UniProtKB/TrEMBL annotation:
Binds 2 Zn(2+) ions per subunit. GO terms for biological process: methylglyoxal catabolic process to D-lactate via S-lactoyl-glutathione. The lineage of its organism: Bacteria, Bacillati, Cyanobacteriota, Cyanophyceae, Oculatellales. It catalyses: an S-(2-hydroxyacyl)glutathione + H2O = a 2-hydroxy carboxylate + glutathione + H(+). This is Hydroxyacylglutathione hydrolase. Monomer. Zn(2+) 2 binds at residues 58-59, 137, 175. Its cofactor is Zn(2+). Gene3D superfamilies: Ribonuclease Z/Hydroxyacylglutathione hydrolase-like. InterPro entries: Clx_II_MBL, Glyoxalase_II_hydrolase, HAGH_C, Hydroxyacylglutathione_Hdrlase, Metallo-B-lactamas, RibonucZ/Hydroxyglut_hydro. The keyword Metal-binding applies. It comes from Drouetiella hepatica Uher 2000/2452. Pathway: Secondary metabolite metabolism; methylglyoxal degradation; (R)-lactate from methylglyoxal: step 2/2.
């Protein structure tokens, strides 16, 4: 399975999954249809599935037009998103599995950003492969999504599920927010040398207009404050010894940043 990254809108990514053997493709969170249709045309591939993580317009905006071009494509989304995702056919819950070509993804229910948000995790099949995580607006490189419809407790549970995946997992989040996220992270975790190094690297990449996505889950665990609510240094920083409270305070500070 190849993964192609299509930058769209201001800072969104659409991910196109491609199986050359079968000339089939699927997309994760098509904000727009035209760049996807263009790419499918170049690959001479059939679109068989749309995998949505949540209902926001910058994630489902291309669904209807893609379905017009490929009426047989199946639209997947969270069960709780019923009525909010255009063309949705399959209503997924925690533990469900979806297939694309020879690969199978596990569905993780990760509410917090929205009440219905799901993530898709493709575990490695053969040795040498790594897991691929499509986490929408739940976990970002160096940050996490805002809490629009969920509570800090839900978000800590959701991010905790993602944090449990192997370090080698590639994190395909839906936005290029990394540099700003790391700028914030440095204000509350300035002694963290992994974070300092990552910031310098990301800054240089952005100066060259390179994408910082995917990141590796292992580096997120070391440098992303929203996966580090149980770190004593961060807890001390916000004067709490409670994971959820620490997360909530950090998220509140980021909202003001
Ligand atoms: Zn969103
Ligand atoms: Fe978004």
């Amino acid at each position: 399975m190849q993964i192609l990254r299509l930058p769209v809108l201001l800072n969104n990514y659409i991910f196109l999954l491609y199986e050359a053997d079968f000339k089939i493709a699927s997309v994760v969170d098509p904000a727009e249809a035209d760049p996807v249709l263009q790419c499918l045309h170049e690959l001479d591939a059939q679109l068989v599935a749309i995998f949505n993580t949540h209902h926001h317009g910058d994630h489902v905006g291309g669904n209807t037009q893609l379905l017009q071009a490929f009426p047989q494509a199946t639209v997947y989304g969270g069960a709780e998103d019923r009525g909010r995702i255009p063309g949705q056919k399959v209503f997924l819950q925690e533990g469900d599995r979806v297939t694309f070509g020879n690969r199978r993804a596990e569905v993780l229910f990760v509410p917090g950003h929205t009440r219905a948000h799901i993530a898709y995790y493709f575990p490695p099949v053969q040795s040498g492969e790594v897991g691929e995580l499509f986490c929408g607006d739940t976990l970002f490189a160096g940050g996490c999504g805002r809490l629009f419809e969920g509570t800090p407790t839900q978000m800590v549970n959701s991010l905790g599920k993602l944090r449990d995946l192997p370090d080698s997992t590639r994190v395909w989040c839906a936005h290029e927010y990394t540099l700003n996220n790391l700028k914030f992270a440095l204000t509350i975790d300035e002694e963290n040398t992994d974070l300092q190094n990552r910031f310098e690297m990301v800054k240089a990449m952005r100066e060259r207009l390179e994408s910082t996505i995917p990141s590796l889950l292992g580096e997120e665990k070391q440098t992303n404050p929203f996966l580090r609510w149980d770190q004593p240094s961060l807890q001390a920083r916000v004067k709490s010894q409670d994971a959820v409270q620490t997360f909530a305070k950090l998220r509140g500070m980021k909202d003001q940043f």
